[in-house]
Design a protein that fits this description.
Elements: E1 2-8, H1 12-22, E2 27-33, E3 45-47, E4 53-55, H2 65-77, E5 84-88, H3 92-95, E6 98-101, E7 104-107, H4 111-116, H5 126-133, H6 146-154, H7 156-170, H8 180-183, H9 185-194, H10 197-203, H11 215-222, E8 225-230, H12 236-248, E9 251-254, E10 259-265, E11 268-273, E12 276-280, E13 282-285, H13 289-295, H14 303-308, E14 312-323, E15 333-335, E16 344-348, E17 364-373, H15 376-380, H16 388-403, E18 411-422, H17 428-441, E19 446-448, H18 458-473
Parallel strand pairs: 1-2, 1-13, 2-9, 6-15, 13-19
Antiparallel strand pairs: 3-4, 5-8, 6-7, 10-11, 11-12, 14-17, 14-18, 15-16, 16-17
Bound molecules: flavin-adenine dinucleotide (FAD) and ligand L6N33NVT.
GO molecular function, one term: oxygen-dependent protoporphyrinogen oxidase activity
GO cellular component, one term: mitochondrial inner membrane
Protein name: Protoporphyrinogen oxidase
């Protein structure tokens, strides 16, 4: 029996870990410590009084795979099924994704036809690259940049345009620095196990965790959902978990409780807050890696250094609302390769996948412009001194140039998301291995979860919370 477990950080990772702890009878008490005044971390939705919803963080969650099923199982258990807004594979938002290249929007090729023909901005049919891919030898290195991996296997053009853009739309990062092994383990494993991405995709690229689909996950398969959100925005997930934890009576939820220092004690840890201390037998840290690093005692070197070396980038998220229907194309949105514009990463056409979030009873268009990421400082300067007005101006000009929109937005919101996305650089897996073995060797009562380590998607982070609880208590959910 574990007496007290402290969960540090009340983002979706810390909340998910607390949720799973509550599901077992083996824990007497859970204390969740969050520095800010709200739970949810980057899951942050603005609900305007007229009914419109705007997302300042994640906006669509994928149901696919073990981690996707796992989140749906939790969402069902929390009673959120009636709130779900699914987007099916046949929806235009799933079919149409654009790239903005050479000052033009290009629909990304899809389906057999798209692969057989030359589709600009590409100079030749992609089917050739895919056919040749099967013959490319497998790499002997234990990690590689995403750009180098795809350049080698699929050609420089695809790597420069499509892969570069994809990395900006998932990691707000630079494909030339990010690790293929840590960012796209499925692709890395496909090469290692099958010798090819194409064969890996067709034959499978290794075992994945076993997560039986509950009723909601089964529904997502039957109705072929590509992604989903919630009627009142994704922030409903942390809100529902918080409510669930409160009702359980076993979790002490503390907001405005920044963890300052952690020190070892006879039975576990003493956690120092601004106004007092908390004792715990075990810590599950769902803090960003650098925040944990600065709280650990000096006895935890080299862990401190390895955590400190996990960098993050800043993204400016600009939500815009326009009157009327102003888009020249319809789809999920467009991404922009770094060769086209370093500062503007892409634009999401939120009204297309989720029209339910528009202001009711009138026609409006909601867009989100994402800027900065790995290029933030170079393009916009120091995030601590940048002016929100300047970011808004850059975003509205981008919408004007790239989408030909001539009207000004009727409403806007600029969120400067500082250090919001960790960057798994080449060799990241080695840091993770070293950290986990240090913890094991020294029997530290500490688990590491959250977006800093093994996946940044909401699904990955929820799953990291579940895995930590299972390993700690030796249970299986
Ligand atoms: C703009 C944007 C768009 C995204 N889009 C998607 C998407 O479409 N789909 C998807 O799946 N994912 C998306 N993501 C990724 C996903 O949202 C995040 O990776 C995930 O929410 C991270 O959760 P976390 O709990 O690990 O971290 P966080 O949300 O960062 O939580 C950490 C918590 O710790 C708290 N904290 C920090 N320091 C201390 C301290 N000293 N003491 C106590 N508490 C502390 C923080 O306040 C925070 O609440 C997006 C992220 C961003 C930023
Ligand atoms: C089309 C434009 C997009 C922009 C701009 C964009 C920005 C952006 N996204 C993240 C983080 C994530 N995005 C994820 C999924 C995702 N993002 C887009 C498009 C844009 N993102 C799409 C079409 C998708 C769905 C992918 C798919 O269905 O194949 C995810 C989750 C990935 C997963 O494994 O589930 C994350 C994480 C950031 C930080 C960002 C800021 C620039």
């Amino acid at each position: 029996l574990m007496r007290t477990i402290a969960v540090l950080g009340g983002g979706i990772g810390g909340l998910a870990a607390s949720y799973y702890l509550c599901k077992t009878p083996q824990v007497t008490k859970v204390i969740l410590l969050e520095s800010s005044s709200r739970f949810g971390g980057w899951l942050w939705s603005t609900r305007r009084s007229d009914g419109a919803v705007f997302e300042h963080g994640p906006r669509g969650i994928r149901p696919a795979g073990a981690v996707g099923r796992n989140t749906l199982n939790m969402v069902k258990d929390l009673g959120l099924e009636a709130e779900i807004l699914p987007v099916t594979y046949s929806h235009v938002a799933s079919k149409n994704r654009y790239l903005y290249v050479n000052k033009q929007l290009h629909k990304m090729p899809s389906g057999i036809r798209g692969l057989l023909h030359t589709v600009p901005p590409f100079s030749h049919p992609l089917v050739f690259d895919i056919a040749k891919e099967i013959l490319v030898k497998k790499s002997k290195t234990d990690d590689e940049s995403i750009h180098s991996f795809f350049s080698r296997r699929l050609g420089k053009e695809l790597a420069d345009i499509a892969v570069d853009s994809l990395c900006r739309g998932v990691f707000a990062g630079d494909s030339r620095k990010l690790s293929v092994r840590s960012c796209f383990p499925l692709f890395y494993n496909a090469e290692q196990r099958r010798g090819s991405l194409t064969l890996g995709m067709l034959l499978g690229s290794g075992p994945s965790p076993v997560v039986p689909p509950g009723p909601l996950a089964q529904r997502s398969v039957k109705e072929s959902w590509a992604q989903w959100s919630l009627r009142r925005g994704v922030e409903s997930i942390p809100e529902s978990i918080t409510e669930f934890l409160q009702q359980s009576g076993r979790v002490e939820l503390r907001r405005d409780a920044a963890v300052k220092q952690i020190s070892p004690s006879a039975s576990g840890w003493t956690i120092h807050l601004e106004d007092g201390v908390v004792s715990a037998d075990h810590i599950i840290s769902a803090l960003p890696a650098k925040a944990l690093s600065s709280a650990l005692p000096s006895s935890c070197q080299p862990l401190i250094q390895q955590l400190q070396d996990i960098h993050t980038v800043t993204v400016a998220v600009v939500n815009l609302e326009y009157e009327g229907s102003i888009l020249p194309v319809t789809g999920f949105g467009h991404l922009i390769p770094s060769s086209e514009d370093r500062g503007i990463l892409g634009v999401v056409y939120d009204s297309v996948p989720f029209p339910q979030h528009n202001r009711p009873d009138t026609t409006t268009t909601r867009l989100t412009v994402m800027m900065g990421g790995a290029w933030f400082d170079e393009v916009f300067g120091d995030p601590d001194t940048v002016m929100k007005e300047a970011l808004l101006e850059t975003a509205t000009r981008a919408v004007q140039c790239q989408l030909g929109v001539t009207t000004e937005p009727s409403w806007s919101w600029v969120a400067l998301q500082k250090d919001c996305i960790p960057q798994y650089y080449q060799g990241h897996f080695r840091k993770i291995d070293l950290m986990r073995s240090f913890i094991k060797k020294n029997n530290l009562p500490l688990s590491l979860i959250g977006s800093s380590y093994e996946g940044v998607s909401v699904n990955d982070v929820v799953f990291s919370g579940r895995t930590a609880v299972e390993e700690l208590l030796g249970t299986k959910f």
